[in-house]
Amino acid sequence: MAQEDVFKKLVAHCKEYGFVFQSSEIYDGLSAVYDYAQLGVELKNNIKKYWWDSMVKLHENVVGIDSAIFMHPTIWKASGHVDAFNDPLIDNKDSKKRYRADVLIEDLMAKFEGKMDKEVEKAKKKFGDNFDEDQFRATNTRVLANKEKMDAVHARFVAALDKNDLAELKQIIVDNEIACPVSGSKNWTDVRQFNLMFSTDMGSTAEGSNKIYLRPETAQGIFVNYLNVQKTGRMKIPFGIAQIGKAFRNEIVARQFIFRMREFEQMELQFFVRPGDEMKWFDAWKKTRMSWHKSLGFGKEKYRFHDHDKLAHYANAATDIEFKFPFGFKEVEGIHSRTDFDLSQHQEFSGKKIQYFDPELNKSYVPYVVETSIGLDRMFLQIMSEAYQEEKIEKEDGKVDERIVLRLPLALAPVKLCVMPLLKKDGLPDKARTILNNLKFDFNCQYDEKDSIGKRYRRQDAIGTPFCVTVDHQSLEDNTVTIRHRDSMAQERVEISKLYDIIEAEVSMKKLFKKLK
């Protein structure tokens, strides 16, 4: 099945089973805005906890804050967002659709890369275990031809970004005959810059109101609180401040479900270091963050680093951790060395001294900052994309059954356990309710007594529940139940008194944390 079709099924699955809804759906929806439903919010909260605990609990020199969404408007002038937070946009004159020029060019390069990957996959099937991928990529004429085309576009693209040459961005689109995905037309307007910040007015009257912005990132809330945290927490360099919060960007080209939205959530760490030490910490956090992603068990081949073609005005190094979604490798986390830009700017614009006195060096300085910033919504989509699977199961009678299963990491699954009485009579529901009531303080549980046991198993598979516990007549006699494992579908008879230990050993986040390096 084509990856595009898999992704469409995943989007439908998210709605059907209560993970993600279109915002304001009864009013025909609001573009690029989504609501997390009853299961989606549980998964989202578990991802937050995994990130937060791995940052704050596991690092003695990292603390957290929760800053306000509304901030003084001068903050965004100091940070450069008022003047420089832009996307290069281009319109197709025939379809009247608007696109990001850089994304159109990146998609073109991804097509070249996709063609190379297809050649590699065909060769893998042909040569089997004897296949040498590196040698094939270095010698195959079709691969080399596509690589040459991709490299040529990439070189022009990087040069145009460095010079902020909007005319050259359009020329790359024209020269490569990039067509509008909707109409197929190649009739383009010029490229122009568009500021992404949402603005609003604060005040009781129009005359007395102040123009403020919905924050486009959470980082600035950390920077303006740097001194407060450092002094009250008696923090010593190096140390970090973590935050999870909403951010808002007026994305004109919002697409691919929850991958790019106008209202989204970020999980960010700003790590303050001595000037000169930033590259050492930049490399250290690259390793730490990649380890965090890989501990979920999706396979190391699903991840890669991608260094930025153009550095932001505040950075001296930047890379992305990319994940292979059904629509290709895309960024899920950015790691940046932000130098002392942010703190120095706020020191200048506020007129307040924002420095750190280093007792070891016996001098004061503005710290440098290494940032890790991960999109929570993209992380959610990454996990769902990898977990969604359609399986064919051969039964004992030779017939083939099918099931949709979410192979979510057990610690992140929204529901950890479903308790099911085999029948709705003979005291089995009462016994099942007793088990549920004993476990619900420790695990998010469900109770299900409707339909056959097989259909109930399938419902739980579809939402990613790791364990199903079935109560039958034998349970009334010897206090044992059947516990079924989601991934293997294996069943075993266990004592009710041992359920907590069995489940806790598998779903605890400790298992994930112990994989971290």
UniProtKB/TrEMBL annotation:
Keywords: Aminoacyl-tRNA synthetase, ATP-binding, Cytoplasm, Ligase, Nucleotide-binding, Protein biosynthesis. This is Glycine--tRNA ligase. ATP binds at residues 249-251, 259-264, 331-332, 375-378. Homodimer. Catalyzes the attachment of glycine to tRNA(Gly). Substrate binds at residues 100, 217, 264-268, 371-375. It catalyses: tRNA(Gly) + glycine + ATP = glycyl-tRNA(Gly) + AMP + diphosphate.
